[in-house]
Amino acid sequence: MNGVVLMKILSILVLVILLTSCKSMYKQDKSSDLYLRSEFTWWEAKPEFKFVTIKDSTNKVVRTKIEADGSAYHIKVADKIWSKYKNCGYKNNADRIIKLDKWLELECTYDFDKLNTTPIQKPFQIKPTKDAFYTFTLKMTTTGPSHIKISKE
């Protein structure tokens, strides 16, 4: 009986070791991770649309191809769960339509629970005239993103 108990304990120990080693193999998303969200991302927080820090800078960037399908795209910056202070859209109505190569101020305080509507509020809009690659750059502060700049390549 002691041998059976010992084998069960060893089996559980091996299982715990395997599970923790598998978990550490994958880079975990941090709560500070931000994603480009739009119709072309299906509004999901996909790894290929995750903002990454620019070397020797606090700014973050993501680059992607946008297809010109005749429709305007809506652009947001948010974390995986659309958190209250990590759900960013335009701050000034005049900036709603994206002006390329210009820093646009972000508003990142949308409160989904309080307003009880879709988290896709105050999105920027861009309507590409032809397929192209775009770079989205976030200006970061100690409290999070403050501005976004969109450039076409």
Strand content: 25-35%
Low-confidence stretches: 11-29
* Largest beta-sheet characterization: 9 strands, antiparallel
Please give the share of residues in helix.
10-25%
Chain-averaged pLDDT: 83
Question: Got a strand count?
Answer: 9
Number of helices: 2
Rg (CA only): 21 Å
Order of helices and strands: HEEEEEEHEEE
The 3D shape can be described as globular
**Helix-strand makeup class:** alpha+beta
Distance between the termini: 71 Å
Descriptive report:
With 153 residues, the chain is of the alpha+beta class. Helix content is 18%, strand content 32%. The protein has helices spanning 2-25, 112-115; strands at 35-38, 52-53, 60-66, 73-78, 87-90, 104-107, 124-126, 132-141, 144-152. The longest helix has 24 residues, at 2-25. It is globular, with a radius of gyration of 21 Å.
What is this structure, in a nutshell?
The protein has helices at 2-25, 112-115; strands at 35-38, 52-53, 60-66, 73-78, 87-90, 104-107, 124-126, 132-141, 144-152. The protein has 153 residues and is of the alpha+beta class.
